[in-house]
């Protein structure tokens, strides 16, 4: 596996600064560290008075940066220290900071004179520019630059190379180890999330599975009852039986697909509402407004019916007045929001968080169902998805539950949900 880092990832700048300052004092030479683009990442150490003064001029500073960058890259290509002369005719060296073929930057040192017979054979890295000589102060400072024997100067370059290689390799190994540890934790989290999703799916199907001893027999009985109702002219009974059969077929169906579609979920909810309409007649009305463009959006299995069931448990059945249930969908350009609203008395705000977390357990297990829906949405699509509950907690002002689904599936979402959603 290939990793790409920056110099600041490899070596701490503060630690690098301390090392540079100490080496500059010990060796009696100027030092600065530049990144892969030739930009200084440390403050200069031991710079000559000439270079300090010259770099006050932005044009001269830019020329210096170009020399530093050219020196570092030349050292990178040779994979060893190189000695050269800068555009001001000073002798300098560059020590590359390279690990596993990646160039991170370089130590630039020098601003000195060496023995004339050796110096004249040292090439300029970017040619000569004498424009600085128009400044008398710079000319004076240039004439008083320090001298160092070339042998000592070259030895300093190779000593610095060994120190740099050790620190860079150590920093690189630490980063790789952290990356491996992070990947191990990520893999463990993904395995845990997958196991949790499987558990929640089984929990959602628990009631249905308890009746799955012989579903073929169950459907035969329901179809027989429906046929008898037809022959007797009991149209309402016939419709109710077939609605119930459709519900049971949906719930009991075994499938490896962890995701279905909003359309499939809505069909199941419509059957449930039709049965409740027969049972409770005019005690409630409902409206479903879900545009066709949202019907193929992926949805976890059995995600809506538990929430609609809560509307009957807490709004329709306990009250004498006519209740209202609304299901509608819209989007924000990225996600689809499926909204379920009622006209009940609402939920105290302090209980909403407890309901979503599953910390409140009601007699009929409704809060567990809401928490189950919340967790399955997050495990299917990520922590940015789930449920929102809004309620003013006032008579007849109702409650709004919002479910968010991604309009498009990412690879990670497809993997966490095992398979792509299918229309049924």
UniProtKB/TrEMBL annotation:
Question: What's one Pfam family here?
Answer: His_kinase
Q: Name one GO molecular function term.
A: phosphorelay sensor kinase activity
- What positions does the domain PocR occupy? 9-172
A cellular component term (GO) from this record? Answer: membrane
EC annotation?
A: 2.7.13.3
Q: Which enzyme type, at the first EC level? A: transferase
Q: Which reaction does it catalyse?
A: ATP + protein L-histidine = ADP + protein N-phospho-L-histidine
- Superkingdom, taxonomy of origin: Bacteria
Domain Signal transduction histidine kinase internal region, which positions? 204-284
Among InterPro entries, the record links this protein to: Bact_2-comp_sensor_kinase (IPR050640), HATPase_C_sf (IPR036890), HATPase_dom (IPR003594), PocR_dom (IPR018771), Sig_transdc_His_kin-like_C (IPR004358), Sig_transdc_His_kin_internal (IPR010559)
Which residue ranges does the record assign to the Histidine kinase/HSP90-like ATPase domain?
301-408
Name of the protein in question:
histidine kinase
